[in-house]
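BUG: 3D viewer hangs when loading the predicted structure for this chain

Environment: internal workstation, default settings.
Expected: structure renders.
Actual: progress bar stalls at 90%.

Input used:
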Amino acid sequence: MPFDMIDYCFTLDLIDDPVLIEEYEAWHRNVWPEVISNIKAAGIDAMEIYRYGNRLMLIIQVKPAYTHERKTALDRANEKVQEWEQLMWKYQNPVPGAKPGEKWVQMKKIFEL
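Structure tokens produced before the viewer hung:
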């Protein structure tokens, strides 16, 4: 990782149904261009999603000027992103401890080598 970049890691569960999980993965093989543009406009330079069973882990790589608040504001102002997020709720389950309406919950880094 370049020294001027910061990684954030988030987690989310999917509904534990193989058909829904496959649908969710299919959507992510063809993410809408408006969603990709919004991610980049928010200052996210790289994004990866990993799955184990129905548990997801999302890693974003950003520059120090990035803020989650700006990303949230851009998401809320973009109708296509809101449509995408509403569609994704069909597949997603908040992790235990998530706030009402919260999807991706930021994970705490506990080790780095």
